[in-house]
Design brief:
The chain has 8 helices and 13 strands. By secondary structure, the chain is α+β, with helices and mostly antiparallel strands. It has a 5-stranded antiparallel β-sheet. The chain has a 4-stranded antiparallel β-sheet with strand order 2-8-4-5. Strands 10-11-13-12 form a 4-stranded antiparallel β-sheet. A hairpin with a 2-residue loop joins strand 10 and strand 11. Helix 5 runs antiparallel to helix 8 and helix 6 packs across helix 7. It is globular, with a radius of gyration of 18 Å. 32% of the residues are buried.
């Protein structure tokens, strides 16, 4: 019970909820451990209810008519997603795939709507999170659709570093193992073009690479490419 409540307390939606309310919502939650590279949702299969990432990472993406994948979101520990009758957290019509072994916590639609019906301050937080996620999704879609491979890659790495970055000597190491092919799938580019662009960014001093790891100098990258 203690571990379960601690995990819920880390979720953005519930970080200011009272212990009594936490205990109440905890009664209706379920947990699932899902292996890496598992598709947990397709556009035709919408998951009803709300889901919280307790451990791991998820990638939200769409596929165009040519079969190319375009990432529309990366969710890490503490992120919320899902659909219920009263609102959507932006996951309708997309694929959701685990990027690493992931632990999800879920609560059903009826349970959650019953919970927030007497707690309007929780609904306000839900709407704020919804607004933030929609803005982030639209920004990422624009960059992925219109940017060069270099711009797409930097934009992706900056977003990943915000969610998964570990600061080391002015660089943020993305604590998520990614191959060049996986990065290519995220930005709609070939593995070869990703490798070439990464080498270019290393020479420019914007990123560092290691064995299945990438670190980015956030300040320099923003200054040179997104000011």
């Amino acid at each position: 019970m203690i571990n379960k409540l601690w995990y819920l307390s880390q979720i953005k939606l519930f970080d200011k909820v009272s212990p009594e309310d936490m205990e109440e919502i905890n009664k209706g939650t379920h947990h699932a451990k899902i292996r890496r590279n598992t598709i947990i949702q397709s556009p035709e299969m919408v998951r009803d209810g709300l889901y919280f990432v307790k451990e791991g990472a998820l990638r939200l993406y769409i596929v165009n008519s040519e079969g190319k994948q375009f990432t529309v979101g990366i969710l890490g520990k503490g992120s919320t997603f899902g659909e219920i009758d009263s609102f959507s957290l932006g996951t309708h019509g997309v694929y959701i795939e685990t990027m690493e072994d992931t632990l999800l916590c879920s609560i059903g639609r009826e349970q959650f709507e019953k919970f927030i019906s007497t707690r309007p301050h929780i609904m306000k937080r839900v709407m704020r999170i919804l607004s933030d996620q929609l803005q982030e999704k639209n920004s990422m879609l624009e960059k992925m659709a219109l940017g060069t491979v270099k711009e797409k890659l930097l934009f992706l790495l900056l977003n990943l570093s915000e969610e998964f970055g570990v600061l080391e000597d002015n660089f943020h190491r993305i604590d998520l193992p990614l191959t060049h092919q996986e990065i290519g799938n995220m930005i709609g580019a070939t593995r070869e073009s990703v490798t070439s662009t990464i080498n270019e960014l290393v020479k420019e001093g914007l990123i560092r690479t290691g064995r299945k790891s990438i670190s980015i100098h956030r300040e320099l990258a923003k200054e040179q490419h997104f000011d």
